[in-house]
Amino acid sequence: MAESGKFRFAIDRGGTFTDVIALCPGGKVRVMKLLSEDPSYSDAPREAIRRILEEETGRPHPADKPVDTSLVEWIRMGTTVATNALLERKGEPVALVITQGFRDLLEIGNQQRPRIFDLAIQRPELLYKEIVEVEERVVLQRADDSLSRPANARIELIKGTSGDIFEVWRPVNVPKLRVDLQAVYDRGIRSVAVVLMHSYTFENHEIQIGRIAEDIGFTNISLSCQVMPMVRIVPRGQTTCVGKA
């Protein structure tokens, strides 16, 4: 029962229909089903909330005015729209921005083979349309100092958020990155997913790239260090791409 005297809404926004359950003040339950896309309203969940508020309060709630949220305690909404778009690959085209030398990493994946004896493996489509390799390199420092460092490199030591010490072998090559990102932008792509080695603990390079992409005009920028800051780059990268696909 809505003991607060306000309305509570639970909404399932599907590709065809939007289903709404409302718990009204006093305990009354309202159920409403609307088309998710209809020319008579701009947004199905909002329209359902507006209609229920209007019918239950007896006061007008015009469609062209903001919903009176003072009457609402909470709104909880789930949707399959994003899942459907992902499965059908109908989302926005995405450019993967990744550390140089790792362009094929997400395509290779983690080598899982659910049907190991199938003679004709059907691989899922990639989550990205283009790849931009970034000239940058951050390496975890080893206790035995066994790294084969590049010759004549000015190496900077940094401490990651995990407490580990890293060596910055190569900072971001900004001029080249700008050219590469601009070329992708000129081809019509507006979404980028930035996935760099060790960015789960050293995020500076990804943040720098995100700012450059924003300056160029990309409208959807996803950084793996913010989306899923975990050690393993493959699931981190896939999740970051899904967020913009």
Notes on the structure:
This protein is of the alpha/beta class and 245 residues long. Helices cover 27% and strands 26% of the residues. It contains seven helices and eleven strands. It has helices at residues 44-57, 81-87, 105-108, 174-186, 204-216, 224-227, 233-242; strands spanning 7-13, 17-23, 29-35, 72-79, 94-99, 130-134, 137-140, 156-159, 165-170, 191-195, 220-223. The strands form three sheets. The protein has a four-stranded mixed beta sheet. A four-stranded parallel beta sheet has the order 6-5-10-11, with helices on both faces. A three-stranded antiparallel beta sheet has the order 7-9-8, with no helix packed on it. Strand 10, helix 5 (204-216) and strand 11 form a beta-alpha-beta unit. Helix 4 (174-186) packs across helix 5 (204-216). The longest helix is centred in the first third of the chain and has 14 residues, at 44-57. It is elongated. The model has no long low-confidence stretch (mean pLDDT 90).
Question: Outline, from the CA principal axes?
Answer: elongated
- Rounded Rg: 24 Å
Strand order within the widest sheet?
3-2-1-4
Helix content: 25-40%
* Helix and strand sequence: EEEHEHEHEEEEHEHEHH
Going by helix content, strand content and strand pairing, the class is alpha/beta
Characterize the biggest β-sheet: 4 strands, mixed
N-end to C-end Cα span: 39 Å
Question: Number of helical runs?
Answer: 7
What percent strand?
25-35%
Total beta strand runs? 11
Q: What's the mean pLDDT score?
A: 90
